[in-house]
Amino acid sequence: MIRKVKPEIRVVGFDDGTFSFSSKLEREKTILFGVVMKGSREVVGAVSRWITVDGTDATEKLIDAVVNSRFKDLRVILLKGITYGGFNVVDLEALHRETGLPVIVVVRKRPDLKAMELALRKHFPDWEGRAELLRKAPPLLEMIPGKLYVQAVGLEPETAFEVVRVTTRTGLIPEPLRLAHIVASAVMTGESTRE
Q1: What sign does the CA torsion over 121, 112, 108, 98 have?
Q2: What is the pLDDT of residues 9-56, one digit of tens each?
Q3: Which residues partner with 161 through β-bridges?
Q4: What pLDDT does 20 receive?
Q5: pLDDT value of residue 18
Q6: How far apart are CA 158 and CA 140, in angstroms?
Q7: DSSP labels, 44-72
């Protein structure tokens, strides 16, 4: 059943800043930036937190950014992927539970979970916990075959697809995620990078 999604639905979309290992600050932290919008047309505000590159604090920082913001009328959290700052994996169920909001993950390429798990095994002593977060995430659903994939927690797939459609202005990516990417990369590198 598709729930009617209002064109002005209030959402927040998060992306992280690009990072390199060329300086001590960039090695340790990257920005997690959220753009709050009404649908795809009006920017209402923004939130940000710093997360540890390859750390384990992305879920906690996302929860804090949403729960402690002045934006109390949010209806959905949009994420551009499930990992931020390298392999800082988001616990989607915890994010949904602690904020009380549905979570929609939007990606353009189907992630290779086996390759991700191999990389985790090779580089992280706590790889099992991170891999478990990847495994317990909801299934990746093809919204546009070969071009756009969605994971949804807290709402039906059809409703998640409708939220993505309503919040997308041009191209494939919802506007809050597109703008979050632009700002986060500019904060980290001095200018925005390609989406």
Answers
A1: negative
A2: 999 999 999 866 554 444 689 999 999 999 999 999 999 999 999 999
A3: none
A4: 62
A5: 80
A6: 13
A7: EEEEEEEEETT-S-HHHHHHHHHHTSS-T
Tokens of 172: 């494939």
| β partners of residue 34 | 14, 47
For the whole model, what pTM was predicted? 0.93
The continuous run of DSSP H or E covering 37 comes out as strand 29-38
Report the C-alpha gap between 44 and 154 in whole angstroms.
24
Token look-up 């099992």 returns: 128
Cβ-based neighbours of 70, under 8 Å, separated by 6 or more: 45
Express each pLDDT in 87-138 by its tens digit.
Answer: 999 999 999 999 999 999 999 998 888 999 999 999 999 999 999 999 999 9
Q: Which residues contact 106 (CB under 8 A, 6 or more apart)?
A: 78, 79, 80, 148, 149, 150, 164, 173, 174, 177
Helices marked H in the chain — which ranges?
Answer: 24-28, 58-67, 92-99, 113-123, 127-136, 157-167, 175-189
Q: Label residue 189 by pLDDT band (50, 70, 90).
A: confident
Q: How far apart are CA 32 and CA 18, in angstroms?
A: 10
CA distance 52 to 155: 29
> Which residue type, as a one-letter code, is found at position 4?
K
